[in-house]
Each structure stands twice: as C-alpha cells, then as structure tokens.
Protein 1
Amino acid sequence: MTGLSDARIMTGLAGIPTQVDVLVVGLGVTGAGVAVDAAARRLSVLAVDAHDVAFGTSRWSSKLVHGGLRYLASGQVGIAYESAVERGILLQRTAPHLVRPMPMLVPLTSNVSTPQAMLTAAGIEVGDLLRMVARTSAHVLPRPRRIPPQHALRWVPALRRAGLRGALLYWDGQLEDDARLVTCLARTAAAHGAVVRTRARVTAATGTCASLRDEITGSTLEVSTKAVINATGVWAGQLASDIRLRPSRGTHLVLRGEALLGLGAAFTVPVPGSASRWIFALPQSDGTIFVGLTDEAVEGDMPDVPEPTDAEIDFLLNVVSLSLEHPLRHGDVVGAFAGLRPLLDAEGHTADLSRKHAVRTSANGVVTVVGGKLTTYRRMAEDAVDATGITSSPSPTADLPLLGAAPAEELARIDGPARLVRRFGTEAPFVLAIARAVSRLPDQELLSPGPRGVTLAELIFGVSHEGAISADDLLDRRTRLGLVPADRDDALALANRALEIVGS
Ligand SMILES: Cc1cc2nc3c(=O)[nH]c(=O)nc-3n(C[C@H](O)[C@H](O)[C@H](O)COP(=O)(O)OP(=O)(O)OC[C@H]3O[C@@H](n4cnc5c(N)ncnc54)[C@H](O)[C@@H]3O)c2cc1C
C-alpha cells in the first residue's frame, strides 16, 4: 500500500458484511487502531461507531504524544517506557505527518521551589534516558537542558520576570489534531480492507454475534463474527457489564495566540499544594493555545459531550496566571472543552489511578480494551487483537505508516498547500485533486483560508472520503473550528457549502 488511498469511511449499515472475522465497536483512537491492526493482519473487519469517528474522549485530549513524564513522577516506570516507545514509533515511523516534536518549558519562577526544580530536572533526565532506550533519535527529540532567564523569555515572553531563575527545556511529541489522527487511522484501516461505518450502533454483543442499529434509518442487522472487540471508552460497561469504570473529567481552555503573545513553546506551572500536578499552556499549529487540565471524578451516566464547569475554568486561569507578568482574564477565554478519561475502577483519587490499559475478556466472550491513552493506542490495539486468539500472525503496525505518513524531509518537499500538508501529509495533493474533481471550482476558491486557515478543499474531502455527513462532523471532528464557538459560527456557511457541493 502507498501513502495514498481512495479508501472511504461510510455511514449506516447498508451493504455491510454480515459475517466477519472481527467486529470493532467504537471509532475513537483505540477502536480505529484496533481496526488497523486487525485489517493489517489480513482479518476481515467491520468497525463501527454509534456517532462519528472521534466522537468520544479522543477529540478532547491535550493532543500530546508524550513520553510519560508524569508516570515517572508516580513511579510507574513501565507505563512511561511504553509511552516513550510508542511516541518514538509515531514520530519516526507511522505518523510523522501528524506528530511533531514540541519544546516544553518548566519556568523556574518563584512558585517553583529549588527542591521541586531539582526533582523535576531529575525526572526530565530519566525521561531522556527512556527516549534513548526507546531508540528515539536526539535529532527528533533534542536532549533536555537548563536555560537562562533571557532564553526562557524568548520561548515564553509572557512569563513573570521577577524571580525568574531560568527554565528547564525538554522536548515531547505533539499532535496536529487528535481527531485527525483518528480519522487517518480509520481511513488507513479501510485502505487495508476494513469496512468502516459511522452512525452504526452496536446494541448488544457476545463474542460471536452482535446486533447493530443504523442510527440514521433505524434499521437493524445481526452480524456473526469470530471476535467482538469493545473499544467504547467510557461507555465500555454498556456492552460488557463486568467492566467498571471510574471516569475523570479533564478540562482545557482555548485562548487566541494574542493572549500569550509570542508563545513558542509549551510551558508548565505547578498546582499550589501538590507535588505532582502541573498546568500546561500548549501552543497549537492553528494559532490557538490550550490551557489544561483538570482531573475531577465523574459519577452517574456518561454524557455524550461533557461540559467544563465554571470552577474548573477559574482554577485553570488562576494557576496559569501565577507564572505570568499579566494575569489572564475571563475575556481571554474564547472556548473551553472537557473530556472523560476511561479509567478502570480502583481505589484512590482519580488523578492517582493507573493509566495503564487493560484487555479483559468477559464471560460472554466480548474482548474489551480500555484505559491507557492516546499515545499508546497502537500497543492497546495489538494486545486486544492478540487477546481474541483468532490469529497467530504478529502485529505489523509498529512499521506500518498511516495514510499520508512520510519523513519530515519528504513532507517538506511536497508541492502542495502548507495547511493541507500539515493535516494530510503526502495525501495533500490527492485531497486537492478530489476537491477539484468534485467541485470544478478554481484553486483560489478551494484554498482560500477561512477561519483559522480552514479550506473548502479539506471540507469537501471530509464529505467525499471521511464520512462527514453534517456541519457538526466537519466543524467539530474533521476540523476543530468548533473548539471556538465564534470560529464555528463563521465557518458554518463554508461547511454547508462543502456538503451541498458533494451532495449535488
Ligand atoms: C482531558 C483529557 C486529556 C487527555 N490528553 C491526552 C494526551 O494529551 N495524550 C494522550 O496520550 N492521552 C490523553 N488522554 C487520554 C486519551 O484521550 C484517551 O485515553 C483516549 O482518547 C480514549 O480513546 P478511546 O478510543 O478508548 O475512547 P473514545 O475516544 O471515547 O471512543 C469511544 C467511541 O465508542 C463509541 N461508542 C460508544 N458506544 C458505542 C456503541 N454501543 N456502538 C458503537 N459505538 C459506540 C463512541 O461514540 C466513541 O466514539 C486524555 C484524556 C482526557 C480525558
């Protein structure tokens, strides 16, 4: 397979196979990863989501592909090592078009004590050791170092100057966009032969059969299969009643770039009174900045779309402002989003629960894969497919580039619009070619930058190849304009135009 494919995500149940090797339930990062793994092992695969690709937690992450520094802080070396390995695979082999190195700063301000700074520096050094053991080149993720105050201010000009002793600088991985990774995985699975459907809900399942409902037409269908893999995140207990979760909510704020002018690196601020909790400010490639994140236990039924609370917004603003020359204000917040971590039930505050993933086979034969994190989706997928016992073929995914993947030097040589290359890698010219063919519009119109740089070309491709059937799909998952309500309003007409163009 090349880095380019006409593979498509489709909606509903029409024409799906009723007998497959593997049924994958859920198209978050975990389920989409499972679909890639199973299809790449030459199993016949049907992968479905009740809503849309990346509808659940996977679109609400911090968009970091991290080496697990925070796990080191809590002594979970195994998880940190696994994260470092998977980070290296994504950065160097499978998705260098969507995952990039990002400088991270720990400013040594007056609210970071000297012992805290020494402990953090030691942790960063161990993290670098894990990078080496995981065989991630220092050309990709440079070695950490301490920098003087004037250098720190170059990376983060908004830092409070009084008492600034310098900063610790290290590098980690950052995603272009979590929902884009999931969409890319789902199309990669389709390129390897999987049938990928959204708006298709599994209403009941055992290890060998499942009942599905088309969420658009209401029609139902039975599918027989050798294995069912439940990758439904915080909803996993609905298909496997013996799986108990204790989700926790994490909230981020969205700021415009002007709120922290000149921000060239992510930076962290310690939460007062905690030895291990930090708040991040993370610059994004579209000019916005995320500030996160909280960790609040959630009880009761899981909402489809969790909402940040006012208290979380105040908390984030207050903590990050501790390190700034001028505190942030509510008026700087142009959006906020919250996600639910699918943590397995265990004793203790949710912030301390293990982030390790689990694969469990229920009495009815359903294999559930849950927990973990976005960074380790590939390993989770491999373990889940192994657990079905239906194939002895080893997983090839550690060396399987996703659609559009290529080394940075090759991506730099692509003759195509920069925004499309950033979001589609080597597929950028293909995305544009499809948009031209479908719309017959001039490039000037297809590539004219809309809010936060979005183009009509990518929206058309979202409808033609990525299964988008509504403005919500386009604005909230194929692009992330929906993270800022004002941008969403501004882009609505463009999204509807793309839907009309492909529909006509
Ligand atoms: C705030 C926050 C920040 C995070 N930041 C990071 C980070 O920076 N880096 C990192 O590595 N990890 C991060 N994580 C963890 C990571 O985001 C999650 O572990 C991961 O996204 C979970 O993905 P999933 O596919 O298991 O679940 P989900 O993304 O929730 O996917 C489950 C899917 O199942 C579908 N579904 C549910 N029921 C059914 C059904 N009956 N039939 C069909 N489909 C169904 C849903 O529609 C949904 O799309 C973060 C988590 C949170 C909450």
Note: The chain is about 35% helix and 20% strand.
Protein 2
Amino acid sequence: MSSGSTPPGERLLEEARRGLVAEHPLADYEFLQGEAPPTVHPALWLQGRLSSVAGLFELAPGFYQLRGFDLSNMHVVEGEEGIVVIDPLITAEAAAAALALYREQRGERPVTGLVYTHSHVDHFGGARGVLDAERAAQVPILAPSGFLHHAVSENVFAGIAMGRRAGYMYGADLPRGPEGQVGAGLGQETSRGTVTLIPPNLEIERTGQSEVVDGVRMSFQLTPGTEAPAEMNIHFPAAKVLCAADNVARSMHNILTLRGALVRDPRIWARYLEQTLELFGEDSEVMFSGHHWPCWGRERIAELLGRQRDLYAYLHDQTLRLLNKGHTGEEIAELIELPPALAAEWDCREFYGSVSHNVKAIYQRYIGWFDGNPARLWQHPPSERARRYVEALGGAEAALERVREAFVAGDYRWAAELADHVVFADPENEAARELQADTLEQLGYGAENATWRNFFLSGARELREGVGGTRMPTAPHDVVANLSVSQLLDAMAIRLDGPRAWDAELRIEWRVSDPDEEHAITVATGVLHHRPGRHDPPAEATLLIDREALNGMLLKTADVAELAASGRLRVDGDGAKLGELLGLLDEPDPGFPIVTP
Ligand SMILES: [Zn+2]
C-alpha cells in the first residue's frame, strides 16, 4: 500500500466519508494529507487520514455515528421519545461535544437510554456527559453481564503501571506531526477530561435476550472473554443494523495490548465471531464498531466478520502448532506469515495489534515467560547484564562504535539492543542516550503499527528530555465509588510494603456505613488479609467511616482531620494501630522511567 492517491486508498477514503452529515475537523491532524513523508509508514499514514475523517455520520435511518471526538466512536439510535446512546467515549467533555454535534443537526432530543457494549473505559467514561444524575436514575442503562466488576477492577491492581505505559502507547506526550504522533491505529487520540461511570441498571445475561428501549428493539449476543472480559454485540432487527462492539475493527486488534493486560483468548474471539455471523449475518445491512468507520452491505459484512474470525483463529492455531514443534514465542513471531487472502486486506493489517506481539502473547497465555532453555532461566537483571555486555564488548566507546555500524547498516533492531545495554550500564552516558534515541526514532518511522511507533518515539523523547508528565487517567471518583470495599482492601493489600511489615502484627476492623459493611483486617508476616465480618476476639482498633468519606480519603480529595472533626471518621480503641497500618503503605510511582534503569 503506497499512498492515499492510489485507488485502494481512495476507495477506503470514500468508505470512511460515506454517510457524513456534519464534519468535526481535527485541527491537530490537518497535516495528514496526500503522500506519506519518509518519517511515517505509508499504510499508517493512510490509516491516520482515514481515522481523521471525523464528524456525524448517518448509517441508516435513525442510526448515527459520532467519530473523531475520542479514540472510540459514540453511536446514537433515535427512538420514539428521544435517543439511545451507545458507548459514551472516555470523558464527559468528549461525549458532551459529540452529543452537541448530533443535536445541532437532529434537534434537542433527550437521552432515553444508554448502552455500554463492554467494560473498557473508552466505552463508558463519558457517561455523565450525556446523562445528568437525575436523568440517569430514570432511564435504562444496559451493559453485558459482569460489566461493572470488570470496568472498575481493571484499575485496581496494575492500573498505575498500565497508565504510565498507556501514555507511551498512545503517544500522549508526543507532538502531532510527521515526526511525532500520527494516530493510534484504532482512532487518532484519547480525549482528556473527566472519566465518569454511571452503573448499569439492566444487565444482559444471555445471548438471544431481547430488550426494547424507547421503542428500539435490540437483540444481544454476549461475547465474554473476546476483546474484553465483559462484552456484547447488538442487533437491531427492524433496521437490519449490527453493532459489533470492539470485536471487529479495521485493523488487527490486540491479543495483548502493549500498555499491559491479561492476555485475551483469540480462540474464543474467533468462535464468537462465527456465532455473530450465524445469528445476524443474514439480517444485517450495516455494521458499526466501537472504532473506525462502518461496513455497508450484507455480503461485505459477512466477508469482514469472516476475515476477522479467521485472523484470530489463524494466529491462535498456528502459534500453537509451532509451539508444539518446540519453537519459542520470539521465534514464532518471526515464522508466522498471514495467509495472502488475509494479508491483502486492510482490516487485517497491523495498525493496532501486530502479528509479532500477538503471537508472543498467545505463547505467554499458554506457556508463560520461560522458553524452556535453562540458560535463560536465571539471567542477570537488565543493569547487571548491561554492565557485563559492555565490558565484554571492550567498554562503552567500543560498544557504541558497534551501535553506529548497525545503525548505518539499517539493522536498527540490533542497534537498539546494543545501545540499550550501554544506556543501562551507564544512564549518564549522553552519547549512548542520543544514539539510542536516534535508533528508536528510525524504528518508529518504519513501523506500520501505531502503538509501536508511539512506543519507539516516546522512548526517544524520554531519552532526550527525561520522564514526561502526561499519564492516562486512572481511578477517577466514579470508578473508586463503584469498587466494593473488598476490592478497596485488595488494593490496600498490594500497597503494603512487605519488608517493613515483616514484624508488624495488626488486627483492625473497618466498619463502613451507608451502605453498611464490616471487614476484619489482619497484618502479619508482611501480608494484609481481609475478610467480611469481625475479629473474634475483637480487634485492637476499629475504623468507623461512611462510604463517601472513605472514597474521598482514598482519592485524597477529603481531608482526614476534617472528616474526623465532622464525625464522619472515628477510631475506637488503639488509634496508634491504624496509624501504624497507614504508615506501612507504600506509594506507587506513576512516573517511573522506562528507557533508563
Ligand atoms: Zn474500544
């Protein structure tokens, strides 16, 4: 694929523009015109152009797509009294702006229902931008079974590290331009603002379940464990419209997103797409997804569903075939080639997921990090290894000379590995940092995958300028407020500084009111245990607090002394014990270095 001026590019651009009612120009991406410059992979350049076609689109009578307000799409279905909104983007501000454009064109229709297709933040975070609290209590809010648990729990354990890495993945700190961020492969960029969550009040429990909201009939297919742990497709039989959530995209998707996550199951993903075809294939004339532009026509929808099914099935089956011949994940990543019939198609290309990192993820899912070779079972950690490599290469200067040779030869993968050793052996070595930054930049310029490009270029930036400031939003108020007390205590347990707590012995009760809950907390042997109920015999100290105050305390939006003064927080018994517990908690580091030790 060479550029937007070639016929396939024009065809894609035409498809991306189809149904456009009102444009929403993306000022930051106006540079994405014409041919790709040498600093951007030509296919990624075109994907950026395609994803920058933004605004309000009519998909079918009464069905509207709002694209380009965020990484994800928001959809509006017109009902009898108002509108049903599907997937209100990441932030309230973005969702409100999208809704405003819709209303500008279609009138001030009230929101009569809200649907979340799955538990990822780019599909629920803007809920309060389309529904105020009063209205939210009056309208049906639909979500797949398990939605709330997964929506809030994703941030509990590894959220801080994921947020830091997501900043790299989406190029949050990169300038927009031919030498910077040109998109995210799945959409252009994530919005910044307030992440919210209104809990659903109607869970979809089974495939085949049908609901009518504001006169709009919807039939559901649950697809848990595909792209998200709680996800569903929606069919609108009257209009022959299919919503494929994030199960279908105009790119290979991620089996393991580079920000970090549990590995997804491509086998289940493929099976559910087969079921989508069976259930709705015959009765769908338009298909829309959580990202990218829609697909029109029954045959083309069936082709797209079939291709995406085959893509994930192929990656899964072939990885396991080669794994069972003794190849490791790193080797399989280089061995697997997509069938030409898939490789030729735009929606199977590697703008967001990649064969390389997806194959390694599948290996990881089944086998884990160890490739079986005992020489790799107990290697030195990166800095120690780096010091020894540099010494073996005859010192930093000699090592950098080899880096320069590899760079000139265009072997950037090797240059990056060698330079990484020099930087990790001595992070103060300016020449090494600069050379590594140049190398990562070249890898970024050559990458078809937007998230690879953003990782490479963010690494280069960090080597030159130090750790940047932007991180993806984590644990906003609505998310914390919807965590169970058990989940909050799980989060506290992973903050306990183990070594400092080796000798601590604590027995504390938490009595939370509104809603009322009691939890017995024990700290011993460096571990925080908790269970519902009380200690027997009673604990040394009891914390009494109402739930809203607890949320405020954890989010640091409420002052502990003020809460105590107003009587919303009280400690009975030995108050020093609670102080001791809080003193044993470690602070996470949301700005840890990535490309230096
Ligand atoms: Zn999404």
Note: The longest helix spans residues 298-323.
Protein 3
Amino acid sequence: MFSKLIIPLIMMIISVTACKNAKQPVPASADEFKYFVEQFEDIRILKYKLPGFDSLSLQQKKYIYYLSQASIAGRDILWDQNFRYNLQIRKTIEAIIDNYSGDKEISDYKAFIVYAKRMFFANGIHHHYSSDKFKPGFPEAYFKVLVKETDQSKLPLAKGQTVDQLISVLSAVMFDEKLFARKVELRAGADLVAESASNFYEGVTQKEVEGFYKANVVTNDPHPVSLGLNSKLVKDKGKLTEEIYKSGGKYGAAIDNIIQWLQKAISVAETDSQKKELGLLIEYYKTGDLKKWDEYNVAWAKNTDSMVDYINGFIETYEDPLGMKATWEAIVDYTDLEATKRTKIITENAQWFEDNSPIEPRYRKEKVTGVAAKVINIAMLGGDCYPASPLGINLPNADWIRKEVGSKSVTLANITNAYDVASQGNGFLEEFAADQAEVERIKKYETVADALHTDLHECVGHASGKLAEGTDPNALKNYASALEEARADLFALYFMMDKKIIELGLLPNEEAAKAAYDAYLRNGLLTQIVRIKPGKNIEQAHMRNRSAVCHWVYEKGKSENVVEFFMKYSKTYVRINDYQKLRTLFGDLLKEIQRVKSEGDFEGGKKIIEDYGVKIDPKLHAEMLDRYARLSLAPYTGFVNPMLTPVYDPDGAITDVKVEYTNDFLGQMMYYGKNYSFLSGSN
Ligand SMILES: [Zn+2]
C-alpha cells in the first residue's frame, strides 16, 4: 500500500549561502595512479584516467573544458527529477557537513556520513539501481540534533519556514519507510505513476497520463517527436498541464547555465557543422521544442568525424516508470584512435550482420545506415552518467532518426579499463567460475571478449531491426527497456560465436567467444543477484534483460542439457555443455524479441520478462549473497571525475587546461554543491 502524501508542500526559497569558487578537492599524488578511491556499503568508487589528453590541441582542450562545465551545470536537475525532496535534503546535509560543530568521531555521525555518501552516489535518497529508499543508519532523533546544532543561517529554509518545520518535513521523508518507498515502481498491476517517487508526474494516475499522451499522438507521422520527453505532467485545477524543461520554464536557472557554457563551446568547436549542431541544442534548451530536439539529434548523429564529442540533454527514460520522460545526462569525450579501428571493422560489416541476423527477414533493415562506432575516452561525467557511468552508449533514441540517419555508438575505453584493472585478483572469478579451465579462459580473453560484446551490442545490436508499419514505438511500456537491452545483448552473443568474427580478426579464436558465453551465463544465472536484497525481485532493466535471456535459454535447452546447474561442496555452479546449441538458442530468442518489438506485442514481451527476468529463487539468492559477502566486495561501481582547470595568461586568455585526479569523493560532491547548484529545490 502506498500512503498518500501527508507532508505539506512548502514553496522554498533557498538563501544563497554557497561560497562560490571554493577550492577543488585535494589532488591525488601525480606519480602513482591508483584506480581505487574508496568503498562504502555496496558502492566502490574508482577514478579514471585521461590518456592522451596532453597531446590534444589547445583548441580541443578548451572545447573539452567548456563542454565539461556544461556537463556539471545541470546536476541539480537530475536530483529534482529523481525525487522532489532530494535537493532540500542534499542542501541540508551539505550544511551539516560544512557547519556542524559537534563530535564527528561517534558512530552516529559516521553513519550519517555513509548515508550522505550513498545519497551523493545515487543523486538522491533512493538507491540508483534497486530504486529502494535508503534506510538511514542513525536515529531520527540524531538527525534533529545535527540540524539543530548546525549554523541555522546555512540551512535551506523555505520562506517563513522554521528549523523545526524543516526537521519535521525531512524526518518524515527520510525516516518513514512507507513514504516514497521506491523511486521507480515497475511491479505488474501497480499504478506505476502514483506509486513511483520519481518526479515526472504530480497528482495524476497512470491512466490519466496514458490518456493525455494518447490524445497527443499524431497518427501516421513518419517523424514523430518523443512525446513527453522533456516535461513534468501535473494536474492543475483539474487540468493536465506539461511543465516544460527549458530556459524560463521548469529547471530554467540550471538550463541557462548550461546554455552559457555551450555558447563558449561554440567559439572553439572543431568544425562548422559542430557549431551549427550546438546552436540547435541551445535553441532547443531555450524553447523546449521537441521538433528542435530531433533536428539537433539529426545534426549530432551526422557529426561523426570530430575528435571531441559530448552528450548533453534529457535522453534516457529508464527512471520514468512509463518510459517516456527523460533524465538529464551529460558526458564529454574524445576519440581513442587505436581502439576505434576495431569498431570500424564492425561498422563496415554492419549490413552483413543485419542480413545474417536470425530474425524474421521482414523485420531486418534493408539498409543499415551510418552505424558510427567509436571507442572514446571520457573527460567528464555528468547528470545521470555520474558517478555511476555507462560502459557503452548508442544514441539518439528516436527510432525514425536511427532508421533514416543512423546512430552514434561509443565504447568508453578508459572507464572499462578502470573497471578491469581494479577488479583483477579480487577472488570473485575463482569463487563463482565452474572450474579452473573457465578461470583460465576468462583471464586470458575477458578484456577482448568484453570489449567486443559491448561493441556489437552498441554498434549493431541496438541499431538493427525495424518496426512493422504502424507499430506504436511506446507499445512495450515498462518492458521496453529490458527487452531492448536483451535484443542488443542477444545480437552480440549470437554473432560472437560466428566464424566471421574470427575472419574479421575481432576475436583470436573460438575460446574467446566461449569465455564470453561463460561470463554471461554465470552472471545472468548466478552472480548478478548479489546486487539485490533478500526477498526482492529484479527491477533494473539491464538486470531483467540478463536474467530473462539466461533463464530462457536454460529452460529451452534443458531437455538437451545445453546449460546445467551443478553442486560442488554444497555450492552452486553453472556449466555450458554445448556452446553451439546455446548459440542457436540465443538466435531463437533474438528472433522472438525482435518480433515482439516490431509488432509492439506488449503481452508477448511481458511474458518473456515476467516469466524469466524478474523472480529470484530465494534459496539460490541466499547462497549467492553469503558467498559474495565473504569476498567483501562492493557490487556497484562509480567514479570521481578528474579536475580540469584552465591555465590563464595575464590577459585572461586560456593557454592550457590542466588535468588533476582526486581521491576525495565527498570533497568533489561538496565542491559541485557549492559551485554548480542553480536550483532551489522548491516543491
Ligand atoms: Zn544497451
């Protein structure tokens, strides 16, 4: 049951107390680069390197710098989108960390800091992956003490709000387990809108939302806009209204700051077409016009040859239970020239993959256009990409642009590398692999197989296939994300075992493909559930995808023992007995999921995800959690950003951009809070 909102909504005006230009966190020593930064609860923090940054031209460095500022400027937007009390809570916690003068050595204060770090990591008070609200590890009464003993002038009080009122509002929000319990509710049968705490809707039911957007669909539009992408839908005096994210509109103050940095970026952009593209993005941010957004995306997708690129906007819809509204995200990146050769091979053969895909021929694309694939290094992560970063990105999302113009696909080399290096020798593989041969295979081929899986997933997987005429692109609703990820994964898995891959020089031999299958099945059938609390279901789209794929092929291949579970010393393991047959099963499922997507078969898609992707065997779950706990590892990883600082000459012109790294996760968060906060958190 969901308790209705009992907290008075108070309009807040935050007093400006932040001291601008506070010092960046302490840089890490330059001579010894260590990826590991720190670990708390279920989170591991790493840093990433900027290889080759020094050899970029001054213009490219300036361009990266301005875009990096635009990547952090929208940070507050995401916090508010995730939950409408997030900003007020964060600002209160920042005030406490900065100003509380009591004992900081006691266990309650230490638990408070862990809570703060978890919140900073999740961009809010709900877990970034499981979506559950954090349970503070300190008593409610102690929170009151912390706020009371903090310099009151630094608290984010609303106009006319007393400190006691602030405490009572935030205490209820943070400590009452029944209130706002989940950020994104995806359980079948729930009112996905009313029962999710994320802030895309207010005062409306799922039915009303669906009715509103159905009425706004332009039928038979060959270039449909992404309806509802950049707005909050609210009920105002009984009438449904969209509050558009734009300059002068919702989140206007943060958007204006983004625009300001994008304008500077235009002045040093590499090409005229990039300048034009940035101009379109600014126009979109000024107007909120979704046609302009598509126009921008077409320009962005076509710009494939620049060294420096970026993402900046309302893009992914994972956090909206209805999969329509996008969270704000940003990255800045530059090309990894060496590794890009690999994805170029895939791109050049994109049509071959499409023509040989095991899907129904009528759902194949006759012409796979412009599947641009690049390996990049990240220079800055922002919004929904920070601190938890993706490993690969394929954009834009609009189906018609992907079909007519193509999409850009990137693999994040320096991020992936940080993961791999930081994870070597932590005992995880040895604990869960079926035997020593598997351990050896994985150690030998993990890096190359992982990279190829990501490349195939992003470059050709997401880009493949097409919808049947007249299919509603939103038909799969809350199952769309998981099914789309499954489709891309299956595409990669199916082709990795193809001899064409060895012919193209993408894998050294079949053993490498076997390593990819071993790792995928072991993760999907066994280890990924260590990220989930006992008694809970799988909610996150990528995890649902992996679970659904693995359990489906396991079930379908059971009579022939293609994949088997077995016990050794009372521990459960997974073994693949027939790799070729497994490959065929991957192909069968890819065919079915492509059909589901192409035809908009909601029930068919629901069945795959609900039957194979959601539930966890409680006995196996307990065993996995126990074995995992003994390894003392954190299941989630995120990153601190490097610190980019311009070097000026006496006339104020930038002569260089300096890169430094930090080991101070909390310090970086506090720094961003002081220097990049443009929204008040008013409800
Ligand atoms: Zn994907």
Note: The pocket of zinc ion is lined by residues 457, 462, 485, 488 (CB under 6 Å).
Protein 4
Amino acid sequence: MSARRASCLAAACLLAALPAAAQPRALAPHERLAREIYEELVEINTTDTPAGDNTRAAEAMAARLKAAGFAEGDVRVLAPAPRKGNLVARLRGSGAGGRKPILLLAHLDVVEAKREDWSMDPFTFTEQDGYYYGRGTSDDKAMAAIFVANLIRMKREGFVPDRDLVVALTADEEGGEHNGVEWLLANHRPLIDAAFALNEGGGGYLKEGRPFVHNVQAAEKVYYDFTVEVRNRGGHSSRPVKDNAIYRLAEGLARLGRFDFPVMLNEVTTGYLERLAQVEGAPTAADMRAIARNPDDSAAARRLAAHPVYNAMLRTTCVATMLEGGHAPNALPQLARANVNCRVLPNHAVADVRETLVRVIAAGDTAVKVSPTPAVRGGPPSPLADEVLRPVERLTRRMWGDIPVVPTMGTGATDGWYLRAAGIPTYGVSGLFGDMDDSRAHGRDERMLVRSFFDGQQFLYDLVRELAGGRPVS
Ligand SMILES: [Zn+2]
C-alpha cells in the first residue's frame, strides 16, 4: 500500500496516516455552514413513523437556500402527502454548451432508531472521538447537507455553471408509501430531468484507517420476490400418504439451494473485477482477472463465489427467505409455501429468471407453482462515461493518493434505479470514506468520520464544479 500512495500530496498522506481523533479542525466558513446544516438535518426526525417529518427537513433546507439568495421559484418543496415533502432547488447555469442539468440526489428520510438501542440519542447530533454520531450521519444526510452547503457556497461565490445544477432531497427511500423520486418523476419530471445524476451508493473504503478504494456505483441489481407453492388435498396425519405438500416444496427448495445462476458480466462488473484486482491479494486477484477476461472460467468463478460479496457481483441470486405450511399438528398439510427473494442482474430478463426457477424448483413436478413474473422495474447499468469517471479519478488521486476508482453494482437498492429506469444515468459517488468492515447505516451508533465529511464536501464541490462548468480541476 505504501508504494501505491507514493504519489499523493504530502499533506494528504500525512492526514491519512494520522488517527482520526488526533486532528482538531479549524473550520473554514463553508465547512462551518455544512456542519450546521448537517446538524440541523440529523436533529429533524425523518423516519417513516408518526414522529418523522420529511417536509420539516425539506422546508428547513428551502429556508436556508432562500436566505442565501435563491429565487422563490427555484426552491420548491413538493409533497404528495403530509410529512412526505421533497425539496427541489436549482442553481441556474448560463446555458453555454446547451447541456442538460446535473441532478444531485440525496434522500432525507432515515431508518427508525430507538434511544434504548443506541449509546447516545440518535436524533442529537454528537461529535465524539473524531466522529459525528446520529441517525442519518452516513445514510444519507451527509450528502444532503453537503449538496445544500455547496450550492449555497457556489451562489455566494457568484459561480455560474454552464448548465443548471438541481438538488433534490427526497422522502421514503428507506421505505414508506411516498417515494420522492418515483413521485417526482411521475408528477414533476421537468423539474428534476437531467443528463445524469449523482447519488448515494458509492464512497470510499478505509482499511485500518487508510483510503483503500473509491467506489462509483453505476448499476444496481433489481429486487424481486417469487412465491413457490404446493397445494394438496391433505387428510388425517395418522394415515399419511407419500404425496405431501411440505415434502414436495422442500425437495424443490433443496434443488434451488444446489443451483447457481450462470456468471453474467456487464461493463460495470467487468470494470469492478479489473480495478479491484489491483488491490486484492494474489490468488483472488488472478481469479478476478481470469473471469473478467472469460466469464466462463468456471474454476475461477467457483473460488471467487465462495465470498458472498463477489458471488453477488457475478450472478443473479435467488434464495429461500420465508416458509409457511400446514394448518394443524395432526393434519396433512394442504399448503406449503416459500418466499424466494431474487436479486436480478440489470442485464438479466426477469422472465428468464422465473423460467429458470420453474425448471430448477419444480423440475417437472406440476404441483409446484411459481408465482407469475412480477412487473418490470429497474434500469440498465449507467455507461462508464469518461465525462464523469475521469474527473472522479483525477480528484481521487489528488485527495487520497493512488487508490483505484472502482465501478460497482449495488446488490441492495437505492433510488438510483428509479432514475436509471427513467433513462437518467446515475452514479453513486460521494468522496465519503468509511471503515469497510464497520458500516453502521441502518444500525446502532451510526457515524461519519469528521475528516471524511469535510473531505467529501471538498470532493463533491470540486467534482460538481468541474462537471457543471467544464473547467478542468488539476
Ligand atoms: Zn440511503
């Protein structure tokens, strides 16, 4: 690692090597503003509960933008329902070059957090030991605060981009009935329409406190549930017969357990394997390169797939997650049912996934029924465009040294898939680094390194300025 870091600026290297708590920070005015906004956002409860209010958070951000000189018409709070408000704000560009706007997306809502589960109050912004603590500090209020603070900074500096910059801070990404991105696309598309979007889902990993890789999420798997069901006429359990719904379902699920979908790569996952091979240990790196060259290399795929993260990158996965069956301890089951949760590659047709499930689970047993193909959702991988990736690489090198920028495919889900499905390429990129073995998003004592927050702010400021103005940042 030290040889890899040789090219980073001396100051950046020094910072990276120091333990987090040892760096007191004197904040610049734009950093103080970002911290203030971050604190305000974390302390507004935006859970999908009666105590949560997304509109309050959206309005607080709108007030700050208007106070900084944004016109009324360029700062909108739009709510499909009480407490489910979304903020859309626009920094107008000159229009030189005729390029469409850039959308900067973050969600305001957070996962529920209970005081008794945490070491501190999750809705009190707390700075301790070089970290900011609080629900949403990593998911996703750091990005939301940074986007607002940077937009205000640009306004104050008199920066006029070539193209409009649109910040959207939305509701119900984590769940709930009023997903802001879906609703804005359906009802106010012109307000958020863009050439491409920057979103959560990326960010950097620290290994033992040092920057290791910087991820750019450019694709996401798509979530589908299938129901597998076997019905039987049942009877008295004192007179069993061989034809039993539970046994037939169990046999089908056991076949699924032994089955793997084929390896299918796309531009993003090929790039992921190639780039990650630069920092992985020798045998794994060789397997990554082998599969990137030839996805049919089954020996390399088998070794790599032993790691659940890599397995999920290589193929569509489907796994039994819930079971129900029978209606009485002394009766033969009339019904046995399982939920099978699939994470489908963005370039894999869901109809094909279902056909495969029928073939593998039912295997000719006509009593085993797999639910119909769900409605199509999700979008294609976003192209790894030089326009976006080059500046990310250059700025990454400048701030964190010679670490790889790795394109990734999310195996969970963010709002990026609504945008990609609507034809807006979306990149998860933040410059926010965290410990790769200690992600606390959705969990207890969620936190963000103080240093990482301000690094991320600077990174996103430089990146957005370059993307918006075409002015190269050296
Ligand atoms: Zn999130």
Note: The radius of gyration is 24 Å.
